[in-house]
Amino acid sequence: MKKAIKIILWIVGILLAVVLLLSLLAGPIAKGVVNANGEKFVGRQMHLNHAGINLFNGHINLRGLEVYEADGTTPFAGFDTLDVRARLLKLAAKTVDIRSLVLSGLNVNVLQDGEQFNFTSMLDHFKSDPDKEKDTTPSEWVIRLGDIRLSHAHASYHDLGRGKEWRIADMNLRVPGFVIGGKEATQAGLNLELADGGRLNLTTDYDAASNDFVANVQLTGFALRNVKEYLEDNLRIGDLAGTLDAHIKAAGNVSEVMQSHFSGNISIDGVNLTDADGNSVAAMQNLSVDITDVNIDANRFAFGTVALDGLAVNYNQWNDGNTMSRLKAKKQQPIAKNTKEEPQEPNAKKPDMQLKVDNLKVSNCSLTYNDHTLPYDFSFPVTALGIEATNISSYGNNNARMRATLPGGGTLAMRWQGNINNWQAFQDLGLSIKGLDMKLLSPLILAYTGYPMEDGVFGLSSRLAINNSQLDNENKIDIFKATVGDRRKDIEPRQKIPLKAALYVLKDKDDKILIEMPVKGNVSDPEFNYMKAVWKTLGNLLVKVATSPARAVAGAMGLNEEDLEFIAVEPDQRSLTSEQYHILSALASIANSDSLIVLNLELHTPDTSHATRLNRHVRDYLKEQGVSESKMNVRTGTAPVAGEPTGYSVSSELKLED
Q1: Which of 14, 78, 127, 510 is most buried, taking the most CB atoms under 10 A from its CB?
Q2: Neighbouring C-alpha atoms within 13 Å toward the C-beta of 148
Q3: Is the pLDDT of residue 336 over 70?
């Protein structure tokens, strides 16, 4: 009996010694296997500094692993320490049970050249044999992962084709636990500290039996500068400041991810976008969005309150472009793609977008337009811009109100009712501009007409209605004391129009200009152009001035237009009468009203012996009244036909060329 006990003890002792020896040797053996068979395992050479394995408590500790590039010398990826604690006895029940996994000092360098990555060959190494029949039998193994930690990780990404680099420094995350396989409901969490500031927290609940999941993502203090590299593919920007906070809940089914429902809120603060020259393009104090329900597959976007505060936009126009054109990045060379294209299934038509916003509030916003293409820089700021709307919907009628302050104390107010999806069906827009100081528009008016604006207050009342594509637009322009200076001869105007003469025509006795501009048409007609219709209406107001400026101005002065069209003269007359001087005085006033008006006086007489003297009298008097030689044409014409009166036929024209 004692001998049997001794034998058993010897056997147990030997087994323990063997296990202990294996435990002691497991680490060095594992290290040697890894270093000698790296290419066989992962398709790349590997080097491991230390491996410690304890078969008794399932503790594995690996230190100093390096995986090399295809050249065998350049580091691709590695880590300082991998510490794993597992329950090895669970393997008998086909369960991989990892109590904890800590990976420290992970470092990964990713290179991209066209469509090739520096890890592409490793992926090819793990590809299965296409001729080998795939095993579709569900696995009975269950993998339990608990307390997964990644600390002080570093990653870099280099796009060799575009010369771009992106880095993540000192990344840390923690996953409390996760189960793969089986039919248990599992939970997982992730905490990530971002290198450039910010924190990401993720928690998920997953039901393996139904594939249903609920995920909560909370992002705080995320620096928008982190996405600058991506924006630079399409935009030439200098900097992007600001932070993003988001709390998003996603609920759905893994098998139908696109049908997931999203809710939560997003807040963006302190945004400042500059162009490549460092000029501010847009800045914003805060944008907050309450997400009620977003479903990408259903094309449904429902929001609670959308609030925008302190948006400031600067739009510049230069001779060689504008703010938007300068922001556009140069087109990248197209990346070579595999010419073999897989057949694609036709995309199912998406349902119409369903947009709903319970409350929209825009406050303290401003828009500044700067035009550097004019002889003098023109800047027009619209400040204190605010918009309020409730129950905005893409599938119904909506209401909104807008207000803003114009430079010089002017105001802008607008109200809107209308349909978004079917805008041709119904729109009702009211616009009011009051108290706009027209001197502020002088650089713009000077560039287009050659006349500087010296005084004037502008007002506009507009009502635009669309019903079943039929536009009915009533515009009333109210201008008081509009005054322009003398035409600038050193400025080449973009359009030569008789602005001074037009003001004479349009002003009433109280120095007011009241213009009514109705615009009508069918907005569904491809030939219809709203701005063309507006300019046509304005043009009609100037037709009278353009075709017969003297007659048009005479009417505005209260003179009899017909009396100014012909000056009767006796056949043998040698000097002018008082009545003729009176008419010439009125014509001089008309000519002096605008530097573009030229008078034509043609004498028709059967006796031309005194014509030269009479013409000289006319010219001399007009000169005394301030009319220059270049603004008058006094000549002798053909003799009158029998029965026609003798005298000067008077006409006028616009001298559009100097």
Answers
A1: 78
A2: 16
A3: no
Dump strand ranges (E) for 372-452.
Answer: 378-393, 397-405, 411-419, 426-437
User: Could you tell me which residues come within 8 angstroms of residue 21 by beta carbon, excluding any fewer than 6 positions away?
Assistant: none
Mean pLDDT in the chain? Answer: 81
Residue 512 backbone phi and psi in degrees, to 5: -110, 150
Higher-confidence position of 261 and 335: 261
Q: What is the 3-state secondary structure (H, E, C) of 547-593?
A: HCHHHHHHHHHCCCCHHHCEEECCCCCCCCCHHHHHHHHHHHHHHHC
Sheet holding 597-604, edge to edge: 566-568, 647-654, 597-604, 632-636
Other C-beta atoms closer than 10 Å to the C-beta of 545 total 28
* Range from 48-62, 389-403, 463-477, 598-612 carrying the lowest mean pLDDT: 48-62
Nearest to 500 by CA among 483, 480, 479: 483
Question: Which range among 2-11, 470-479, 506-515, 626-635 shows the weakest confidence by mean pLDDT?
Answer: 2-11
* DSSP secondary structure letters along 65-76: EEEE-TTSSSEE
The token pair at 52 is 């410690």
Which alpha helices (H) appear in 344-423, and where do they start and end?
A: none
Q: How far, in Å, CA of 239 to CA of 228, rounded?
A: 7
Residue with the larger pLDDT of the pair 457 and 658:
457
Nearest Cα to Cα of residue 365 among 381, 380, 379, 341:
381
* Cβ atoms of 329 and 233 closer than 8 Å: yes
The secondary element (H helix, E strand) that includes residue 449 is helix 442-449
Tell me how far apart the alpha carbons of residues 401 and 386 are, in angstroms, rounded to a whole number: 8
Position 434 confidence tier, pLDDT thresholds 50, 70, 90:
very high
Q: Who's near 289: CB < 8 A, 6+ residues apart?
A: 265, 266, 267, 303, 305, 306
Q: Which residues pair with 48 in a beta bridge?
A: 65
CB atoms within 10 A of CB 257: 12
The C-alpha atoms of residue 398 and residue 409 are separated, in whole angstroms, by 30
Rounded to an integer, the average pLDDT of 626-655 is 88
Average pLDDT on 4-11 reads: 52
Tokens of 182: 């089986």
Give the Cα separation of 439 and 455 in Å (integer): 6
- Distance, in Å, from the CA atom of 640 to the CA atom of 570, rounded to the nearest integer, reads 12
Which is more confident, 303 or 192?
303
What is the rounded CA–CA span in Å between residue 320 and residue 646? Answer: 59
More confident residue, 530 or 340: 530
The three-point CA angle 399-404-409 to 5° equals 145
Q: Which long-range contacts (CB under 8 A, 24 or more apart) does 466-469 make?
A: 466/418, 466/423, 466/424, 466/425, 466/426, 466/427, 466/428, 466/523, 467/425, 467/426, 468/424, 468/425, 469/424, 469/425, 469/522, 469/523, 469/524
- pTM to 2 decimals? 0.65
CA atoms of 257 and 244, how far apart (whole Å): 25
Predicted confidence (pLDDT) at residue 337 exceeds the cutoff of 50: no
CA distances from 175 to 77, 145, 201, 202, 578 (A): 22, 9, 10, 9, 106
Euclidean distance between CA atoms 51 and 183, whole angstroms: 35
Structure-model confidence comparison of residues 126 and 14, the more confident one: 126
> In whole angstroms, what is the distance from residue 195 CA to residue 114 CA?
28
Q: Kind and range of the H or E element at 50?
A: strand 46-54
Average pLDDT value for residue range 358-369: 94
Residue 396 pLDDT level (bands cut at 50, 70, 90): confident
- pLDDT (0 to 100) of residue 414: 95
Q: What is the dihedral of CA 492, 493, 494, 497, to 10 degrees?
A: -140
